[in-house]
Amino acid sequence: MLPDQRFIIHVDMDAFYASVEQRDRPELRGLPLIVGGLGPRGVVSTCSYEARRFGVHSAMPTAQARRLCPDGVYLRPDHARYEEVSERVFEVFHEVTPLVEGLSLDEAFLDVTGSLRLLGSIETIGRRIKDAIWERTQLHASVGMGPNKLLAKLASELSKPNGFHRIEAERAAQELAPLPVGRLWTVGKVTEQALHRLGIRTMGELAASDTARLASALGRQVAALQALARGEDDRRVEPAQAEQSIGAEHTYDVDITELALAEAWLLRHCERIAARARQRGLQGRTVTVKLREPPFVTHTRQAQLRAPSASAIDLYELARGLLNAWWKSQQRPRLRLLGVSLSGFAAERQQDLFDSSAERRVTDQVQDSINSRFGSGSLVRGGVLKTRQQD
Ligand SMILES: [Mg+2]
């Protein structure tokens, strides 16, 4: 092994949200399933492979998906459940290397260079990850392997779904040559069109083009682009930093004009954030409320708790004060978006049952255990029910 040679794995769950739903609700298997926002401004988060045949894809407005696939099944995302599955998946990653860079709930880069001596070849490790994910979640992951991030990611994309593929450095140029230039992650629509105007459609054509000629049309970064088209990429896998903040927010189809409803949503957000903080063993001190007036004017208000906490009621009390102060300062308060986040984390305190907040923590714990048995949202505080009519 050369001293600077890296062994990188890219793992991406297949149609993640939709696959979790089809796993848990067998009646949805084999059907075109679209998970996303269902209101007039909703966007598709994920769709099943059956729905993709109709031309539906993620990030498409749900209204457009409904026109393409009127008989599809449309569901709102259940983030708490996807997060639970995500934790199982990331446990698998951390069993093979500490160098895990999560890109989303269901996608990560792993640098396994230091694991090869102990665990075997990159394919052995890749296979182990894929099998362990299947055993623990009954979901398929696509696994791509390569000497850098670019090739590992292309390898998983090219072999999806249920993929398993390695692109070795020596074969990179050959495998990449026929692929469209748009597949390079730095090439957006504008660059793609500029390349097309120059008659360059594939990575092979890009790699073989004269740099000086390209530079006059596209600028000097074009040499870096050509390096990518040859499969060269020296970005490192950056392991996750400690989480900076945990937040929840919602954009409303109908603007909120009633304070009681805004407060109910605030409580619901606080419960979600507090549960996620407790799952991760975190307590935060800074509460930030995000308020967006239509169409796009966003305000934030921030305050500190007296002591770090992961209690929904502690967060809510502070957040509600911030919301109320803003509300009173407005002539005609209207909210298009309302969000809350918790930051300023410290490690969790030892339980102190004589602490005045002990009772609150017990309520939170009961809620966590009921939600984990019966599904998130089974037990919510009364105030949150008000938000259910809208969601
Ligand atoms: Mg995915």
Automatic annotation (TrEMBL):
<keyword id="KW-0234">DNA repair</keyword>
<feature type="binding site">
    <location>
        <position position="12"/>
    </location>
    <ligand>
        <name>Mg(2+)</name>
    </ligand>
</feature>
<feature type="active site">
    <location>
        <position position="107"/>
    </location>
</feature>
<keyword id="KW-0963">Cytoplasm</keyword>
<feature type="domain" description="UmuC">
    <location>
        <begin position="8"/>
        <end position="188"/>
    </location>
</feature>
<comment type="subunit">
    <text>Monomer.</text>
</comment>
<keyword id="KW-0227">DNA damage</keyword>
<comment type="similarity">
    <text>Belongs to the DNA polymerase type-Y family.</text>
</comment>
<dbReference type="InterPro" id="IPR022880">
    <property type="entry name" value="DNApol_IV"/>
</dbReference>
<keyword id="KW-0548">Nucleotidyltransferase</keyword>
<keyword id="KW-0238">DNA-binding</keyword>
<dbReference type="InterPro" id="IPR043502">
    <property type="entry name" value="DNA/RNA_pol_sf"/>
</dbReference>
<keyword id="KW-0239">DNA-directed DNA polymerase</keyword>
<protein>
    <recommendedName>
        <fullName>DNA polymerase IV</fullName>
        <ecNumber>2.7.7.7</ecNumber>
    </recommendedName>
</protein>
<dbReference type="InterPro" id="IPR036775">
    <property type="entry name" value="DNA_pol_Y-fam_lit_finger_sf"/>
</dbReference>
<dbReference type="Pfam" id="PF00817">
    <property type="entry name" value="IMS"/>
</dbReference>
<keyword id="KW-0235">DNA replication</keyword>
<feature type="site" description="Substrate discrimination">
    <location>
        <position position="17"/>
    </location>
</feature>
<feature type="binding site">
    <location>
        <position position="106"/>
    </location>
    <ligand>
        <name>Mg(2+)</name>
    </ligand>
</feature>
<comment type="function">
    <text>Poorly processive, error-prone DNA polymerase involved in untargeted mutagenesis. Copies undamaged DNA at stalled replication forks, which arise in vivo from mismatched or misaligned primer ends. These misaligned primers can be extended by PolIV. Exhibits no 3'-5' exonuclease (proofreading) activity. May be involved in translesional synthesis, in conjunction with the beta clamp from PolIII.</text>
</comment>
<dbReference type="InterPro" id="IPR017961">
    <property type="entry name" value="DNA_pol_Y-fam_little_finger"/>
</dbReference>
<dbReference type="InterPro" id="IPR050116">
    <property type="entry name" value="DNA_polymerase-Y"/>
</dbReference>
<keyword id="KW-0515">Mutator protein</keyword>
<dbReference type="InterPro" id="IPR043128">
    <property type="entry name" value="Rev_trsase/Diguanyl_cyclase"/>
</dbReference>
<dbReference type="GO" id="GO:0003887">
    <property type="term" value="F:DNA-directed DNA polymerase activity"/>
</dbReference>
<keyword id="KW-0808">Transferase</keyword>
<dbReference type="Pfam" id="PF11799">
    <property type="entry name" value="IMS_C"/>
</dbReference>
<dbReference type="InterPro" id="IPR001126">
    <property type="entry name" value="UmuC"/>
</dbReference>
<keyword id="KW-0460">Magnesium</keyword>
<keyword id="KW-0479">Metal-binding</keyword>
